[in-house]
# Entry
Amino acid sequence: MQSRNTRDITALRVACERCVGLTEVGSWHAVSKSDVAAFGAVTHNMQCIHTDEAWAHDESPYGGLIVHAYLTLALVPHLTSGMTPLWGTEAKPLILNAGFNQVRFMAGVPIGAQVRAQRTIVSVEERARGVLVTQRITIECDQVSRPVAFVESLVYVMPK
# Structure
């Protein structure tokens, strides 16, 4: 006989597997100058490309201030939060970021621009304590003609 936890994990896997191949696009989110300043203060990254408007205008290859690449990456949970829950609407599992298989920053995001995520569920694997979901995320920017980042993210979904 299966334990309750094993049944819960299997149920989560089955629910998540229904989403394999599903692609969704999230809502736009504006990245403000105050967001960049707060992120720079917390990470101690106050490089002039993020903070010095005169320098960025005259010297930067972007022609102005840009968002920290890691701030763009840190926004992924927020940018995907309004998308369909992989586990269905009944379960309330614990979600843990398990890391990344790949992260590529392709272009700078101008401060004040809007970004959004496009997410595709790539795979679902049942593990001893939960389900490992691999998702491919493309970050788009309303002021840049190509994607600004590609991320292959691993999320661990565990029954509570």
The chain has six helices and six strands.
